[in-house]
């Protein structure tokens, strides 16, 4: 089996594009790439190193037009209600057929309907901010979503939305529909009196707040090799590869258990305190914490260790994001766990995450993915994670501040 660098190739397509964009950026004499749309947006300019953090453009609700942006003829705006079974199905179909693929078009993200419901309905969500585009025949052809979150950015507490699931049907690509979707969601969010947003993307746009990388840990190396996600390293047999990635049958910590509703106050306090050390982190209410971390089968798992008084001392969590294996005779789905929020106080982070790998493997995951943010750098090598191909850029809309390192990022988006 290969060591790290070429182990696992599954990444958001844009992450690969990001590498290309960086290569382009390296042609320094040409200066920063021109972005017809993004250069008009309230974003920090490339190379700008602001002394004082703050808003780039200040507006009031009266400055924001009440009517939607014009759509090209034959298309109209809608909002989608993911709590409605038929509409959830439409969103699922759009994304499962048109969302992010890897560069070789071998894998495509396959967010489940239950996952989409979870991702889009935290406390305070508004279906108005799940913006769709329909064709004249009523077919859903585009999407962009926002959900509210209070965010701490280097000492400032800011009301923000998290933007996700920007998707344009493959038949409508490269027609400048994405900027219209982005402008329309900005308008709707602004009309609610919110002026900042966070989002991640593989592509390099003006201008990232942080640049993180994905790492991957094989849990089922045989299947990963069969589907072409990773390959056998020189001089490695399948048997030796499987031995290399073998994990214990059970967790090291005997009393690790799935988080229950009664654990929420204690686990919420633990995570909130932990996140204070990072320059970018969500400020979750107890209700939001319960939404994001209470286990939902096949969507999100959270495990806790408690002391004898029932106080949560350690927690680990991951979400389930499978990918479709496109056109494979034997395997339809690649099951991936993504590291979410982890806090270790009675064991090391490495010990906690080894248990997390065991728990994910026992739930049938084929691979465990983690970004190099928060404390993750501590365990990646020891636990045999391999580095991914690209970068995941973090962005903050309409807020200027200095770039931060991955270790200063305390936010995981879905
Ligand atoms: S990241 C996931 C993005 N989705 C995918 O990768 C799925 C597969 N791809 C597609 O569906 C399409 O290729 C998309 C672009 C929709 C991505 N973020 O319409 P176009 C710019 C931002 O001709 P298309 C996620 O969901 C591009 O640089 N901008 O292109 C977070 C160019 O602008 P410029 C992007 O390929 C989303 C313009 O679009 C992205 O048909 C955060 C071209 O438009 C991207 N990932 O469609 C959104 N990709 O000329 C921002 C391309 O200037 C939110 N572009 O370079 C901002 C905050 C808003 C709220 C603010 C509230 C205060």
Task: Kindly summarize this structure in a few lines.
The protein has 414 residues and is of the alpha+beta class.
Report what the structure shows.
This protein is α+β, with helices and mostly antiparallel strands and 414 residues long. The protein has 2 domains: 4-27 and 36-210, Aminopeptidase; 214-388, Aminopeptidase, CATH 3.40.630.170. It has 10 helices and 18 strands. The chain has helices at residues 13-26, 85-98, 113-120, 177-191, 221-226, 238-244, 264-275, 286-293, 349-362, 377-380; strands at 54-55, 75-79, 107-109, 130-135, 140-153, 156-168, 196-201, 210-218, 256-258, 280-282, 300-306, 312-320, 323-325, 333-334, 336-339, 367-371, 386-397, 399-400. Strands 2, 4, 5, 6, 7, 8, 9, 10, 11, 12, 15, 16 and 17 form a 13-stranded mixed sheet that branches. Strand 13 (323-325) and strand 14 form a beta hairpin. The two termini are 29 Å apart. Bound molecules: tetradecanoyl-COA.
What is the topological layout?
Layout: H1 13-26, E1 54-55, E2 75-79, H2 85-98, E3 107-109, H3 113-120, E4 130-135, E5 140-153, E6 156-168, H4 177-191, E7 196-201, E8 210-218, H5 221-226, H6 238-244, E9 256-258, H7 264-275, E10 280-282, H8 286-293, E11 300-306, E12 312-320, E13 323-325, E14 333-334, E15 336-339, H9 349-362, E16 367-371, H10 377-380, E17 386-397, E18 399-400
Parallel strand pairs: 6-7, 15-16
Antiparallel strand pairs: 1-18, 2-4, 3-13, 4-5, 5-6, 5-10, 7-17, 8-16, 8-17, 9-11, 11-12, 12-15, 13-14
The structure holds tetradecanoyl-COA.
Tetradecanoyl-COA (MYA) is lined by residues 13-14, 35-38, 98-100, 161, 163-168, 173-179, 182, 185-186, 189, 194-197, 199, 201, 203, 205, 397-398.
